[in-house]
Fold:
Amino acid sequence: MGERPVDRDTVSEIQEFMFREALALDERRFRDWLAMLTDDIRYEAPLRVIREGLAVWDLSPTSRIFDDDRQTLEVRIQRLETDFAWAEQPPSQTRHFVTNVLVDPGDNPDEYKVHSNCFIYRSRGTSPTPSLYSLSRKDVVRRTEDGWRLARRWAAFDQALINAHNLSILI
Amino acid sequence: MNTKPESQSLAAWVEETREGIDSGRFPARAFNDQAVYDLEQERLFSKTWCFLAHESEIPHPGDYVTRYIGNNNLIVARDEHGEIHASLNMCRHRGNVMCKAEMGNASHFRCSYHGWTYKNSGELVGVPYMKEGYEGRLKRKDWGLVRVRVDSYEGLVFGCLDPEAPPLDEYLGGFQFYLDLYLKHGLGGVEVHGPPDHWIADTDWKICTENFAGDGYHTPVAHQWGFHLGYFPSSGSTHSQGWAVSIPGKGHGIGLGHGPNFPPFGGFPDDLVAEMKQSLSPEQVAVFSRTRTAVGSVFPNLSFLMQPFSLEPGEIGVRFVTMRLYHPVGPGRMEMYSWCLVPKNASQEYKKEAYRAYTLAFGQAGTFEQDDFENWTKVTQAAGMTMVRDVDFPYIMGMDSAPDPEFPGPGHAVVPYVNDTNFRNLWSRWADYLAGEA
Amino acid sequence: MDEISKQPTIERPPVGDVSQYPEQSAEGPIVIANEFADVVIRKVETRNGMRLDIWSPRRGSRILLDAVALDCLTFQEPELISELLERRPAP
Structure:
């Protein structure tokens, strides 16, 4: 805020990149998704704790639901590619609704800070009750020779007691 | 409502269940049934010692967390003199919730309804309009927060709603020997890495307790991906090796999985191993040094797991410890609490590495946890079907196995690790409570 | 109740000037808060010395404590605070 705004073309490209990234996840094209990440990706979801309004933090500085890098994300994808990832057998149906995308200049000339809201609908099997996850994301995307890449995903859940038996999906 | 025939038939069902356990049978209905759930609330969770918090969650005077025993919401607080208290999280005046946050620090709690104020130890201190309103008829000492008995072992704080229940030491009954395998990692002991992961699952708490009481049987199948890709240092052909140990008559049980080529204390840094050899007894070292996986449950709903995990397939990797609490919130429904415990004296690098291994494997997005909860939710769903009311599950592994005479620890130790002995002991204790004969 | 409802002007307390706090950064006063109360704390310079200013925005009440008063608090039992809360619990 206060800095020179990012030009419309860049915003539009980044927004499209975010939507394509979400589509890769929803279409379970996990290798395509991995290719959209930088090698130094940080992928984390801090744990929310219910605290008073003036508390120093309500997102734990130490506890993480996801605390991943490229290597561990590869493990997660490799796992989904085996026949033994029971949590996703049969696969969940997911839909990532990415809205309120705001783009600000990043710490490096090639990087941009991207704030977005993400609402994820996940249904499993014939269960009539879907899992609903609402998240605030503060990501970093980087312009590379090969196109846009996600350099950081930071996503905070809007629930402290998450109403889902597992998180076998990506956020 | 005519409840008498129902309660009579429930009592008969409990008796039949007790007899069935002795012959290696346990009814599926136990895992999803309103009447069984109600009986557990009345006879089990109101009598047993239940885990509340780790002392490292409330290290300083005034620190508190809110937790549950059964459906009772409690404040677990360290008072200004350093002593830990548990009180019902309810104002004695008109019943409002005192602490609405999950954690915090306060010397006194003040009700947001009429302003009654209590010390963090639970004593009533402040009453607005004391003179004008109560005219000397209110005695503060009679109206403190409702107290809950607390006791602790090696940093684990437990509470008990039954004033007549035996002390915690007796309740644990020798299982302390095995708890030390998770808690005495170095001379400084362990601490929580942070607040617990916390989520809701349509899973019965007992399925989790049983699994963590030493279900080595499920691992090569439910977590086959880890074996298949080499991230878990065990193999399908040797995974049955190890001990299953139970504390007869107490319900606690632990599985101690071995691996043929697993090095002693594998996955721990050397300086920590040196400290562990001092903090543990020679008998504990003998058990610990051979253990690759230790998975144990304290009856009724607290569990621990120590396991190595490697990001390099085929390597030993790093050991992590998770502690979990299964809080029942309805038939076949629970709130899960999952902590990562790290050795206080370990380096920051080791703590970080152990925590990352934990989040990759356990916690809500953990790759092992995901598959467990998928299976357990399905088990719970099945247990609620009407046809299942008369269906039993077999618990006949190791029915005739004699205890291992060489085993240096307390309790009843049998081989192999793949065994139902711990579970028969668990269900037998559970049924004692439900029969009102614990 | 009248003296309580008077809002003290935290920016410029009548006894002296508010010092920059903390000294090294311009981050402003310290807030100490929990579920039950919150107070704003500042170091206040008087003409000839200094005091600690504790202000309760919820109540609008305020106390200025000198070193002797603060030092005296350091060797009291925690029960003293309970006694004070017994005397005037709320509002």
About this structure: The helical segments of chain C are 2-5, 67-74, 79-87. Confidence is low (pLDDT under 50) at residues 1-13, 19-26 of chain C. The two ends of chain C are 10 Å apart (CA to CA). The first strand of chain C starts at residue 16 and ends at 18.
